[in-house]
Amino acid sequence: MAGVTISVLLLLCGYVASEPARFDGHKVLQIVPHSLQELQQVLALHDLYDLDMWRHPRKGNHSMDVYVEPEKLEPVLGALKTIGAHVKVWIDDLQRLIDEEKSSNKRSFQLPYTSQGRNPGFNHEAYHRYSSIVQYLRDVVTATQSMSTVNASITTMGYSSEGREINVIKVFRGDGVSRPSIFIDGGIHAREWIAPATVLYFINQLVYGDEFDFAPQLLDKFDWYFAPLLNPDGYEYSHTTYRLWRKNRVEQGRNCYGTDLNRNFGYEWNPAVGGSTNVCSDVYSGSQPFSEKESQAVETFILNNRQNMMAYLTYHSYGQMWLYPWGYTSALPADWQDLDAAAKVGTSALSQLYGTNYVVGSSTNVLYSAAGGSDDWAKGGAGVKYSYTIELRDTGAHGFVLPVNQILPNNRESWRGLAEFALSLNTNRGFHRG
Ligand SMILES: [Zn+2]
After folding, report:
1. Three-state SS at 324
2. What distance in angstroms lies between residue 205's CA and the mean position of ligand 1's atoms?
3. pLDDT tens, position by position, for the chain (434 residues)?
């Protein structure tokens, strides 16, 4: 009887016993069309071969990064040659990068580390699993109970389709004064591992103090909400089974899984604009706006707390961009200049440490627009004025597989960018749409 139960279980969860998917010889090409006409031809090719575009072309920079499986390589390269677009191999063997990431992540857990924060119990120079992230948030709350100048509390905003917690931690002075708030999330796309790592680092700096001494000013000015891992199911799957997984893990039929949560938010939702109605697509928009538990969790929490919410920042990778709405249309919000100026404060501060260059712009500058993004909804649906999507390191050399030794520099510069951005906001002026 027990034997039967175990085999049924193994059958149901076939992936438990199987090895992670391999990406030997899988490549990422940087394609640079020389004209708008060439760009259109490359985009048609992308659709024809159902390629995964890792980085989209923008106005003024038509280059794009495209992931190509070995069996598609020959026809795709042949077609690109006919088109005449310039091609460079960014990543020659994706499996090699994944292997390196795995071994250096393991090493990082074994070595004593030199975190800039003062929390000795958590390594901010490694990629963590879901359970470790949940535990970290609990440890922070416990630690603040013996601190007099900072307080923290966890709210479970909801549960993923596989039943994991979607947590937000509030970090605040705890002196009874209610301040304007900033909401920050990460990990909406499973494979973008650097995003949760960045948000966890932010929490650490704010609670335990930071090298620039920004934390006291930031706590005086704002209440902070951090949701480091919005898509825990997809994130775990990207660790155990398929490193390049992007969506959540809801079964869709036709042996396909997942909705692209960042196409599922309910402001001007439209699968025809940068999303898809095909359940097997990596950018499947869902059956309707907010069809997914993960996006619903964010919607409910922000609507309940938006009254004094001044900014929404969602962290993704990659491309080094600080983007503001709209994503669904080429039109700009009426107050786009405010958003543009504040973003430039952030990126200029960020570049001070290592000279890392970020592009600031609206998503309207992206030739490939996308509806259903969380930033569009935060601004258009929830009325949060300063709404951004931030694409972290790098520009394509490693793409989503950012090496472990870049976690800390990425996090330090991102913290500096966030802090100076937040300190530049004018909290005395009316900022909510009312
Ligand atoms: Zn993303």
Report:
1. strand
2. 24
3. 344 444 444 444 444 557 899 999 999 999 999 999 999 999 999 989 989 999 988 877 789 999 999 999 999 999 999 999 999 999 999 999 999 999 999 998 877 655 545 566 789 999 999 999 999 999 999 999 999 999 999 999 999 999 999 999 999 999 999 999 999 999 999 999 999 999 999 999 999 999 999 999 999 999 999 999 999 999 999 999 999 999 999 999 989 999 999 999 999 999 999 999 999 999 999 999 999 999 999 999 999 999 999 999 999 999 999 999 999 998 999 999 999 999 999 999 999 999 999 999 887 676 568 999 999 999 999 999 999 999 999 999 999 999 999 999 999 999 999 999 999 999 886 555 43
SS3 253: strand
Q: What's the whole-model pTM score?
A: 0.93
326 - beta bridge partners? Answer: none
Ligand 1 centroid, distance to 119 Cα (angstroms): 28
> Do 337 and 412 form a contact (C-beta atoms < 8 A)?
no
Residue pointed to by tokens 């490359």:
42
Ordered structural domains, the chain, with CATH: 27-92 (3.30.70.120), 102-249+259-424 (3.40.630.10)
CA 385 to ligand 1 centroid distance, Å: 21
List, by residue number, the catalytic residues: 391
Q: What is the DSSP letter of 393?
A: S
Cα(173) to centroid(ligand 1), Å: 31
350-381 burial, b for 16+ CB within 10 Å, e for fewer? bbeeeebebbbbbbbbbbebbbbbbbbbbbbb
Centre of ligand 1 from the C-alpha of residue 151, in Å: 30
Contact criterion met (CB below 8 Å) for 415 and 106: no
By the 10 Å C-beta count (0-12 exposed, 13-18 middle, 19+ buried), 4 is classed as: exposed
Q: Are 358 and 321 in contact (CB under 8 A)?
A: yes
How many whole angstroms from 316 Cα to the centroid of ligand 1? 4
